[in-house]
Design goal:
CATH class of the largest domain: Alpha Beta
GO molecular function: ATP binding; phosphoribosylaminoimidazolesuccinocarboxamide synthase activity
Strand content: 25-35%
Distance between the termini: 28 Å
Helix content: 25-40%
Bound molecules: cytidine-5'-monophosphate
Order of helices and strands: EEEEEHEEEEHEEHHEEEHH
Radius of gyration: 17 Å
EC number: 6.3.2.6
Number of helices: 6
Pfam family, one: SAICAR_synt
Pathway: Purine metabolism; IMP biosynthesis via de novo pathway; 5-amino-1-(5-phospho-D-ribosyl)imidazole-4-carboxamide from 5-amino-1-(5-phospho-D-ribosyl)imidazole-4-carboxylate: step 1/2
Number of domains: 2
Shape: globular
InterPro entries: SAICAR_synt/ADE2_N (IPR028923), SAICAR_synt_PurC (IPR033934), SAICAR_synth (IPR001636), SAICAR_synthetase (IPR050089), SAICAR_synthetase_CS (IPR018236)
Largest sheet: 7 strands, antiparallel
Length: 237
């Protein structure tokens, strides 16, 4: 049962889980935002799609031994997770150039990045989530050098698992953003969500974009492509 609303973000609300110490309920909203909230829209049904997709992916990652905050999907739009203190870093892993790296470094879209590139952004809306280096991360995120290394190593290991998960459904994992959280015991686990809101997912045969870029770029219907991802994941079961 849902307790008090603790936090509301752009895509999710976070509630206390009543009678369940140390657990939270994530409630996925139908809102889509891009460009740090400058572009906004509501897509009825998006919350269900992201909740179901993220639940699938977190379950598969857990089956592969990745420690995450995910406990269970509760209903269409909500999931139960362990409470963590979110580390204010957006950890982006890139296998193929797209999005901000193409503009920042003048690299052509679709250029394969081998080995994959890990980038850190400071999770701060007011500052526009700036790209930061390791020393900045140690300064702003209250983590040790060893923990930063652990986060990067985990992000690259998760990349391998996610590549396999998406390859199996004929999708190329171009890039994605992860967030990590600290459990009460101190250990660091994967938190937040992994969904078409936070990944670039291209059909391997057609290069069709099956992620939030269709909304960012106004090139397709968000609900149709998210549904396609969910259907392909469900076919796998
Ligand atoms: O915009 P950029 O190319 O840096 O994004 C890299 C990846 O991180 C993309 O998959 C994007 O969806 C994701 N991302 C995100 N949340 C942000 C910024 C980027 O999920 N605030």
């Amino acid at each position: 049962m849902k307790g008090a609303l603790l936090y509301e973000g752009k895509a999710k609300q976070v509630y206390e889980a009543k009678d369940a110490t140390g657990k939270l309920i994530l409630s996925y909203k139908n809102d889509a935002t891009a460009f740090n909230g400058e572009k906004k829209s509501v897509f009825p049904g998006k919350g269900r799609l992201n909740n179901e997709i993220a639940a699938h992916i977190f379950s598969m990652l857990q089956d592969q031994g990745v420690k995450t905050h995910f406990i269970e999907r509760l209903n269409e739009t909500e999931q139960l997770v362990w409470q963590t203190e979110i580390i204010p870093l957006e950890v982006v892993v890139r296998n193929v150039a797209a999005g901000s790296i193409t503009k920042r470094l003048g690299i052509e879209e679709k250029t394969v990045l081998e080995p994959p590139i890990v980038e850190l952004f400071y999770k701060d809306d007011a500052l526009g989530d700036p790209l930061i280096n390791d020393e900045h991360a140690l300064l702003v995120a209250s983590i040790t050098q060893a923990e930063l290394q652990e986060i990067k190593t985990k992000a690259l290991a998760i990349n391998i698992h996610l590549q396999h998960i998406f390859q199996a459904i004929r999708i190329q994992l171009v890039d994605f953003k992860l967030e990590f959280g600290r459990l009460a015991c101190g250990s660091i686990v994967l938190a937040d969500e992994v969904s078409p809101d936070t990944c670039r997912l291209w059909d391997v045969a057609t290069f069709e974009k099956l992620d939030k870029d269709v909304f960012r770029q106004g090139t397709g219907d968000l609900l149709t492509v998210y549904e396609e991802i969910l259907n392909r994941l469900e076919e796998q079961k």
